[in-house]
Design a protein that fits this description.
By secondary structure, this protein is an alpha/beta fold. The protein has helices at 21-30, 66-85, 116-127, 149-161, 172-188, 211-233, 239-242, 256-265, 282-294, 317-327, 364-367, 382-389, 420-454, 478-490, 518-537, and strands at residues 2-17, 43-56, 204-208, 246-251, 268-272, 298-305, 330-334, 359-362, 375-379, 459-461, 469-474, 497-501, 504-510. The strands form 3 sheets. It has a 7-stranded mixed sheet, sandwiched between helices. The chain is globular.
């Protein structure tokens, strides 16, 4: 609405109008509310108004127009670039205590809109102190998570389009780009043709949120496939009569999400022992299935891991696969971290045996420069997965059903974001060659760190170094290794995590950030050595170059192949 205030001089005012000056003067003199049509801008002109200053009442809604968004958006790009350009200066692990944030912001949401400038100030004041900086070159915990400017651009466009792609008709590009991009990705790692959508194939790829989701979906699909199979044999059987007989298998090195999948699906899970290289072997699986069959149980599902979280071990697909095929058991292959490396020909052999799998999954959002969340899952026969999740209410039906994919049948939730955009942007703007260079560089850095560890007699390598993870420990007790890790993280200089491997507490050093270089590897090793000095000085034998009683120097070296 307009407000008018009488003054004694003539002022030049800029108005966005498509009304004549006479009409505006009429509105002013009558002091009536501005007509709604005046809110529709057409062009700017300069009005000479004698006796009045004209004020347009400010819209209380911030960021209401694209003009405002352009300003804040460009500002946000600067914030992002400044953050990433200077991330190395921040401690990689957040130093705050639980509950820090509630004291920094009001206990209730604001009644009136706040400006972008006010919000921006609180990014540094409120948010950054509580951020663990996963893309710092000093972050060496877990496995890395992908990040790149092309991926960020893809997410920006996805957020702008903001479609809910549960069916083809809900946004055809959302569905079709996903199908094509997943075929591109499958071809990059030389997946067998049976996993690709192609023209008329039964296979195909779908984007899930995480490897954890993919495992749950595969297990639920395997469960329903086995139930249908048993009901074909005996139509009088109820699915709840069959369910208690179903058995799934995995290794003692598989990710914790596999056990969660068991809890969600109500299918019992056998956790099988691994060999000296922490890998599940075929004969172990075969014996377990034989024992269960003698009890009248039904082997249903096997989850094999290529690149375990603990030590990056690879289950023997060439042995497990034929065993699953013989028993008609669903084999799901989880290669969450390692899968990205299969785009490099020198690592493709690690995927040998995948032809036996019913489903396969890896996370481009870990190692392939794609931002979280984007987990790639392929199935050999989509009818199995669609059959497990198919529902078709009238309000979701459309005229092209049966001739196109409706990805709501390939997942647990109904809605899905346009995640294929960021994958498509990354694949196009990096190309396969640049992505291969990135993976090879990170592997090279891990081997540089391995060499540093092996040069110091106080430490031992605990698992084979194949990709970007090095597992090592101080030649001391588990307690001393935990103390060492605690000192490292409290230093605020680098961030690492530990794990347990065959009863031994070990330290995991992962090459994570895309910006990591050799200088950061040397820096991290210096931090570790400095933190180890105090512990080692208190242990008999180290000062004189001796060894400890918990094992021989290089305990795990017999398990390490030349690299």
């Amino acid at each position: 609405m307009f407000r008018a205030k009488q003054v004694t001089r003539t002022l030049t005012l800029r108005l966005t109008i498509h009304y004549t000056v006479l009409e505006i003067e009429t509105v002013l003199k009558s002091a009536t509310p501005r007509p709604k049509s005046l809110y529709s801008p057409c062009y700017e002109r300069t009005l000479q108004a004698t006796g009045y200053i004209i004020f347009e009442e400010e819209d209380e809604t911030k960021m209401a127009t694209s003009k405002e968004f352009r300003v804040a958006g460009k500002d946000m790009v600067d914030v992002i670039c400044n953050y990433l350009d200077n991330i190395e200066e921040r401690p990689p692990l957040s130093q705050v205590r639980p509950g820090y944030l509630k004291d920094l912001i009001p206990c209730e949401a604001p009644e009136k809109p706040e400006s972008w400038e006010d919000v921006k100030k609180d990014i540094e004041r409120v948010i950054m102190p509580g951020v663990t900086h996963w893309h710092s070159p000093h972050f060496h915990a877990y496995f890395g998570t992908g990040n790149s400017f092309p991926s960020i651009l893809g997410d920006m466009l996805s957020d702008a389009i903001s479609c809910i792609g549960f069916s083809w008709i809900a946004s055809p590009a959302c569905t079709e780009l996903e199908t094509v991009a997943m075929d591109w990705l499958g071809k990059m790692i030389s997946l067998p043709e049976t996993f690709l959508a192609g023209e008329q194939g039964l296979g195909g790829g779908v984007i899930q949120g995480s490897a954890s989701e993919s495992t749950v979906i595969a297990l639920l699909a395997a469960k329903m496939r086995m139930i249908r199979k048993q009901q074909e044999i005996d139509p009088d059987l109820d699915q709840f009569d069959i369910l208690p007989k179903l058995v799934a298998y995995t290794s003692d090195q598989s990710h914790s999400s596999v056990n969660r999948a068991s809890m969600i699906s109500s299918v019992r899970m056998r956790v099988l022992p691994t060999d000296e290289r922490n890998a599940l072997r075929g004969d172990t699986l075969i014996e377990a299935m034989k024992r269960d069959k003698k009890k009248g149980l039904l082997p249903t599902f096997v989850c094999a891991t290529l690149g375990t979280t603990n030590s990056l071990a690879f289950d023997r697909l060439s042995e497990i696969g034929p065993a699953c095929e013989d028993e008609e058991v669903w084999l799901h292959v989880d290669a969450a971290y390692a899968g990205s490396a299969f785009i490099c020909p020198e690592y493709r052999s690690l995927l040998n045996g995948v032809e036996y799998a019913s489903s396969f999954n890896f996370n481009p959002h870990k190692f392939l420069r794609v931002n979280f969340d984007l987990s790639a899952m392929w199935v050999k026969d989509k009818r199995d997965i669609v059959g497990a999740f198919y529902t078709d209410p009238v309000y979701l039906q459309h005229g092209h059903q049966g001739s196109v994919e409706d990805y709501r049948h390939w997942q647990i939730p109904l809605g899905r974001r346009f995640r294929a955009l960021k994958l498509w942007f990354v694949l196009r703007m990096f190309g396969v060659e640049k992505l291969q260079e990135h993976i090879r560089h990170q592997v090279k850095l891990a081997r540089e760190f391995k060499a540093l560890v092996m040069s110091d007699q106080r430490f031992t390598i605990e698992a084979e170094v194949i990709l970007g993870l090095v597992c090592f420990r101080l030649k001391g007790t588990n307690t001393q290794n935990k103390e060492l890790l605690d000192k490292i993280n409290k230093s605020g200089k680098i961030h690492m995590i530990g794990t347990e491997l065959k009863g031994r507490y070990i330290l995991r050093f992962a090459v994570c950030a895309a910006t990591t270089e050799s200088c950061h590897i040397l820096y991290a090793w210096q931090v570790i050595q400095d933190c180890a000095i105090e512990i080692c000085d208190g242990v008999n034998g180290y000062k004189n170059g001796g060894t400890l009683s918990n094992g021989v120097n290089g305990t795990a070296e017999a398990c390490i192949s030349p690299d």
